[in-house]
Amino acid sequence: MYGHQLEAQHYSDTTHSLPFPPNAMGDRNLGNVYNAVLKFLSSNDDYPSLYTPWECIHIVNSVLNFLKSDIGANNAILSIYSLEYLFYVMKEATCDQRELEKPKTLHITDAYFERDYFEYEIGIECPFHEDTDRGKFCTQSLVTRWGYMFSDHMCQDIALSLIRGWHANAYMFGP
């Protein structure tokens, strides 16, 4: 456990700078945290699939299992899949709608995630990461950037107009 704890502390210090237990923010009962995640995902026991970058699937599973191991945690099992594969399948589907050329391989759509065009977008991070100038590592910022990426690469395919702040940031609208 100590090796993983030291690794997690080092990762936190060099990226998002969130305080680590025992000084962590929020609820200290990990079972409550896990149950809050489940409640956020669904009001019944029918949980949707979750998506994360393929290289983080094992990390997300490990974190969820760690949270679930605390007293009082629901024993629900969540399915975690590759975000890049979801993007690829959705891009194919939007191209089908308008008979556009589909991406030839998964590697082409994977490159969009590697580039992360919206990485330095300001104003989409949580207050903590805005104050510490670590917005790039903020989960809220990351998920918002993924939404922008999906919108940027798919809305035009199905003739949807982008809405500033919802599907896109100001940069996507030009000066």
TrEMBL record:
The keyword Cytoplasm applies. PANTHER family: PROTEIN MAELSTROM HOMOLOG. Keywords: Cytoplasm, Differentiation, DNA-binding, Nucleus, Repressor, RNA-mediated gene silencing, Transcription, Transcription regulation. It is found in: Cytoplasm; Nucleus. It comes from the Eukaryota. One of its GO terms (biological process) is piRNA processing. It holds the Pfam family Maelstrom. One of its GO terms (cellular component) is P granule. This is Protein maelstrom-like. InterPro entries: Maelstrom, Protein_maelstrom. Residues 2-167 form the Maelstrom domain. Belongs to the maelstrom family. GO terms for molecular function: sequence-specific DNA binding.
